[in-house]
Amino acid sequence: MLRESLVRGFADGIVAQQGLIAHGRGEMFYYLLGERTIREARIASRAAAALLLKAERPVISVNGNVAALCPKAAVTLANAASAKVEVGLFHRSDERLSKIQAVLEREGATQVLGFLPDERIPGLEGSRGLCTREGIFTSDVVLVALEDGDRTEALVRMGKKVIAIDLNPFSRTARSATVAIIDEVTEALPLITGSLEEIRGDSDEIDRALERYNREENLGAVMRLMASNLGIESSESSHG
Ligand code: ATP
Ligand code: MG
Questions:
Q1: Which atom of ligand 1 is nearest to the CA of 173?
Q2: Cα dist. 102→105, 108, 158 in Å?
Q3: pLDDT for 14-42, tens place per residue?
Q4: For the chain, give me the number of helices (H) and strands (E)?
């Protein structure tokens, strides 16, 4: 079903060619994960919810794949977190951007930023560095999904707290984000929204969610699980 949504999104001009290839990479890592939401993803999602609740200017960044796979889940999270929605495209065209904007508006987004960029993310060449002052440029917390490592790293360099949803624990995105959720995006977004409702207004629980999350530890556990699903003994266990 996910693959079909992607293909339809491609035919409709929402998904880029490169987006189809990226999806294939995602499917491969999802296999290694056992195609399920693992404990580490739940811990990371709770930390992500805490970051969003503590944020003053949160933004959910949406690209073509997210718009094709789960536009409703993205808008629902944005509304729950009082976050702005901004479309950020690696392969930008006005036509694709306005189509994605229309999809998000159809799902109830009141304001979608990105069509008229007036700022740049330092360090990113060409149209992929474009963003809006009202949205990503002045944000303090940005959620990106299926994002390229260059852009994630550039956002982190700008001093932003970055939440990344990415099935690849080895990607530069996962390794540079403040919080990296290793799960399929259609599962991860509702998971964050659910956690957000659970801990909303409970400042102790919000702090605890952040304390419980450690990126290196979390990614390490995911990598060990993938290795073990492949029948490979991880170096740690083989060293006793
Ligand atoms: P890097 O972060 O090192 O640049 P990359 O070049 O592979 O990695 P992109 O292709 O720009 O990054 O981003 C796509 C990422 O999204 C890939 O890591 C892929 O595994 C992941 N991905 C693809 N489909 C999904 C999905 N449905 N849910 C979650 N993650 C996905
Ligand atoms: Mg890349």
A1: 2
A2: 5, 10, 29
A3: 999 999 999 999 999 999 999 999 999 99
A4: 12, 8
Return the half-sphere exposure (C-beta side, CA atoms, 13 A cut-off) of residue 91: 11
Give 160-197 pLDDT, tens digit per residue: 999 999 999 999 999 999 999 999 999 999 999 999 99
Specify which residues 85 forms β-bridges with.
60, 112
CA of 207 to the centre of ligand 2 (A): 32
Average pLDDT over residues 117-133: 95
User: What is the predicted pLDDT for the residue at 236?
Assistant: 57
How far, in Å, is the centroid of ligand 1 from the Cα of 26? 6
Report d(CA 224, CA 239) in Å as an integer: 14
Domain covering 2-222 assigned CATH 3.20.20.80 in the classification: no
Q: What pLDDT score does 233 carry?
A: 79
- Return the residue whose CA atom lies nearest to atom 9 of ligand 1: 148
To 10 degrees, the CA torsion angle through 95, 99, 110, 177?
A: -90
End-to-end CA distance of the chain: 42
Measured from the alpha carbon of residue 149, the closest ligand is: 1
Q: Which residues pair with 113 in a beta bridge?
A: 86
Name the packing angle between helices 71-80 and 94-106 (round to 10°): 70
What is the Å distance from ligand 1's center to 169 Cα? 10
Write the CB contacts of 181 (distance below 8 Å, at least 6 apart in sequence): 41, 44, 45, 48, 163, 164, 165, 166, 188, 191, 192
Query: What mean pLDDT comes out for the span 43-67?
Result: 98
